[in-house]
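Milestone M4 deliverable, item 7.
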Amino acid sequence: MELTQRTIEQDNVNFEQEVVLRVQQFALKRSQLQLSLRASEVAEKRVQIAKSRYEIGKIEVTELNIALNEYQDARKAYIQSLWSLWTSHYEIRNLTLYDFVNIKSLAEDTPKIN
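Output delivered:
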């Protein structure tokens, strides 16, 4: 009985550590998303400037293409960061069985098996 009790206590500690780790990772992913968004905005402005400069003949088409490619890469990175953040959110939600948006337990929504 004592061994079972200690095993349960250790499982609880492990669970709490896992939740804390996932929340920390979520916070990092949120920061990464903000950085990715900012990089995308900067790349978009660069494309606008490059288009304007191309139209007046100040830069070559290759420089415009470089700006466009960098913008596409920045958008892809932003979308990947967004996907990663939401995946992390649902991992935490699944782990804790708690809906943080609606502030309610998901365990209560579990269908009952007869």
